[in-house]
User: Which sequence fits this backbone?
């Protein structure tokens, strides 16, 4: 498609994306397989999470220890996680080492050993990370906010559910791996110092004959309600708030992003200046655009002491509603500059770019160039932003709190 | 010193460091002023923290709001914080915008308005962030570990002390600013798409006639003891452990770094494989080298459920002691590759590089090139690592726990 970008979907449904970056020695890879919490079996929520750990415990010719040692001997900085739609495996290193590692990643997703002993450890760790949430009330708040805001199963906690994880067995893991680790809807993205031809050959060799089952349709259910309080004894109250917005694919996407930047971008964002800097109500407050594949939302968070919690929620609502009165040209200009600057910075990071092109393909079916993003930001006018804000009043609101006592919620 | 690096100390004591990076459009800046928690007045611990917020609330010709708006209009992604030795102001954006912002940063450190109303908000926020620690037991553990391990005042919590922050006044802030915001021992580092000549001229123009008072000597006191338990009702116990090591300037620095990588680098590190992967005792465990200017330490952390806490601490001690029996060639090779890979990745980030060269100058009085770091890693041999580990047995240990009950500590 250009000298900088490359996109190819193999006959088995796997899509390869690549971006060539000048002036770097490194490369980064993101591999998405369509095993996310949203497609976890109904009463086995957490299966993708446990599986994303388990597949790394030996694959191909290498047992668990040998696999870890080998990937470390390539200098690969690695990460893996289960998300809403996908399980994600990522690595970054010298570009040639990332290329060498591709074969091993094909073993990990296609030929994992799934050992019994490794299963017990992976299950245990998943349960421990869930238990650890009690010491992370802010993270707990954000998980609960998603649960009460998004339709199920897209609202599920990507870590899973305790009772479900306890019911998992190694045999269920093997079935789940066979069902959901497959080329159709998988995305492999690489960014950095790479050659498209060599990359495509390497990926074809190791992933080209990968096969898999068709996917089951997902049954979608509305959230249980719009208001929820989670009791936690603490000096702090954590407040989360969400309301629907347009999808990422909408023509108005950057209109909404700009409005959200005015609310909470940079340090001149309204939430920061009004709630934190002027009134010192909170140490931490933000709002941002957050999307499922085809449903956008605005989400906001504030964490504060219990005695300021009600005032903080009230202020947050005031600022969000005030947005429909419009933004100023100066605010919009700053929002544009801020978003363009962060686009440029991310454009210099191989890890950031391979994540971005994978996300682009998942949401839009194609890579957006950095130039296209820049032009889309430039094209947003004050009239469009203010017309949009006037027409689309915020709400209905989902409001979730974590703390010692509930707050008075706006009706 | 080379085409890539630049170093210059102005007559007033400010040092300018720069690194020219190929293939980037951005630049990042780090400005360190010698106002860290270690030099906070004896019973005003937290003064540097409050001041690092307050100086941003209006400076030069711009009031608080105008200053924030202006810096956002340059697209500068900013951060500021008080550390042990310095207060740190950082920004990153298109290189030309970072250059433009230098004048404003000189206003911030030299001509802040220090307004009364801004002081109350900054003081309030500092107290809130301290109160928020109750919801962050892991962070609390790491703060307590420093307090019980390092000599005072280098062991202080950079956020300050509640009772001391409550006693601060705007007049004390003005005195403190005049005392500690000064060119001597300040470091300004820029990395990215820059020209040394233009940068030096710009810095000279805005910082060249900056003057300040001489520094008071710091009185150092030993830590209160080596073992501490902090009661917190929770399902989790957090364990921190530290013991002395060599300084960053030692010839053995990379020998120690390699040994620590074997213990806890990559995913094949011993703590990760033994305590997490094999025994599933913890979700999170790590060890790392951590240094004051001229005192190194090894610090380790594990967070786990209460019923596994004792076993986790015992295992952690076993692995640390076992290190003195030596590491294998394969372990050393992986450690070298891992550390070199992460050096290369960091070498591609403007923010990471300006932070690194500032740190280098502070600790060593000069910039280390990426080549020098790579060569130093390569020069470490298995014999040197194992001889060092045999000679320098780990200990004495500082052990701190946060959780519902104390553990049995090794004697």
Assistant:
């Amino acid at each position: 498609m250009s000298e900088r970008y490359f996109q190819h979907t193999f006959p088995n449904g796997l899509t390869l994306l690549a971006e060539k970056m000048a002036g770097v020695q490194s490369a980064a890879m993101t591999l998405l397989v369509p095993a996310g919490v949203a497609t976890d079996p109904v009463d086995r929520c957490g299966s993708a999470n446990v599986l994303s750990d388990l597949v790394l415990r030996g694959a191909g010719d290498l047992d668990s220890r040998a696999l870890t040692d080998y990937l470390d001997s390539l200098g690969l900085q690695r990460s893996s996680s289960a998300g809403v739609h996908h399980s994600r495996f990522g690595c970054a290193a010298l570009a040639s080492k990332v290329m060498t590692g591709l074969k091993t990643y094909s073993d990990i997703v296609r030929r994992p050993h799934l050992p019994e002993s490794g299963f017990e450890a992976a299950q245990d760790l998943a349960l421990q990370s869930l238990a650890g949430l009690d010491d992370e009330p802010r993270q707990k708040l954000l998980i609960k906010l998603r649960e009460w805001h998004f339709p199920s199963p897209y609202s599920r906690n990507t870590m899973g559910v305790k009772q479900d994880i306890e019911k998992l067995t190694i045999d269920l893991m093997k079935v789940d791996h066979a069902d959901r680790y497959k080329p159709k809807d998988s995305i492999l993205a690489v960014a950095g110092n790479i050659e498209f031809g060599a990359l495509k050959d390497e990926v074809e060799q190791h992933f080209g004959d990968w096969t898999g089952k068709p996917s089951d349709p997902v049954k979608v259910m509305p959230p249980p309600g719009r208001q929820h309080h989670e009791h936690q004894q603490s000096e702090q109250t954590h407040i989360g708030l969400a309301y629907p917005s347009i999808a990422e694919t909408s023509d108005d996407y950057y209109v909404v992003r700009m409005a959200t930047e005015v609310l909470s971008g940079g340090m001149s964002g309204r939430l920061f200046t009004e709630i934190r800097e002027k009134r010192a109500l909170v140490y931490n407050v933000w709002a941002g655009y957050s999307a499922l594949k085809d449903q956008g939302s605005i989400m906001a968070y504030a964490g504060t002491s219990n005695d300021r919690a009600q005032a903080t929620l009230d202020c947050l609502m005031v600022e969000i509603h005030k947005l429909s009165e419009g933004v100023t040209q100066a605010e919009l200009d700053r929002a544009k500059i801020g978003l363009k600057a962060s686009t440029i910075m991310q454009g210099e990071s191989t890890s950031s770019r391979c994540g971005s092109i994978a996300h682009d393909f998942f949401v839009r079916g194609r890579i957006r160039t950095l130039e296209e993003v820049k032009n889309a930001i430039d094209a947003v006018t004050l009239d469009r932003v203010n017309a949009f804000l006037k027409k689309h009043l915020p709400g209905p609101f989902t409001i979730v709190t974590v703390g010692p006592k509930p707050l008075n919620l706006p009706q």
Remarks:
- The radius of gyration of chain A is 22 Å.
- Chain A touches chain B through 71 residues (CB under 8 Å).
